[in-house]
Amino acid sequence: MGAADWCRSSAGAALVLATSSDPQHPAENMADGSSETFWTTTGMFPQEFIIGFPKCVKISKVAIQCYLVRTLRIERSISKDPVDFEQCVEKDLQHTEGQLQMEEFPLPEFPATYLRFIIKSAFDHFVSVHRVMAEGTAENT
Description:
Elements: E1 4-5, E2 14-18, E3 39-40, E4 47-67, E5 69-77, E6 86-92, E7 101-122, E8 128-138
């Protein structure tokens, strides 16, 4: 079986935490596979969200479609619960006026049960995250 996108709700991913809540733009929108829907932040920074996988997966690439995000950190956990995160990557994103930021993070393959995305700063008071993707394969269990 080839690499799958483990951040989709259809793959069994679950949004276990989001620091902002807007009923019109819920966090679950990030996992529906569509760039048309999104989650929006509603307060100060940092903001974060955590995606849990249905099993431990080997991740080789993470990607995000967002708007107005300045600094993003991605962390992973291999715990049964969303704790003990360690940093994978932190990056300053380029501002793209009027269009979505599409960032790919090719990473050395690593196991994960959870990914935490921390939006440390932004180009405006609010940001939107349209899609997150984590490409990888299921660990043999």
